[in-house]
Amino acid sequence: MLLIELMSGLNANFHKSLMVWINIAHNWLEETTNILNSKIGSFPFKYLGLSIESETKIYMAIGD
Prior knowledge:
With 64 residues, the protein is of the alpha+beta class. Helix content is 28%, strand content 19%. It is built from 2 helices and 4 strands, in the order H-E-H-E-E-E. Strands 1-2 form a two-stranded parallel sheet.
């Protein structure tokens, strides 16, 4: 992460970040959020104004 910040000049704001767990031990998630100074999030959550849910339905059009 530090390398990306140095190369791009952009910084991640972990204070505003949410850690959403998927198949991760809860104690690992708590430890990571404490180290990064972020919060534990859950589904559904908003990203750029869009609701992100745990079950996403994907529709595919199949042509002849």
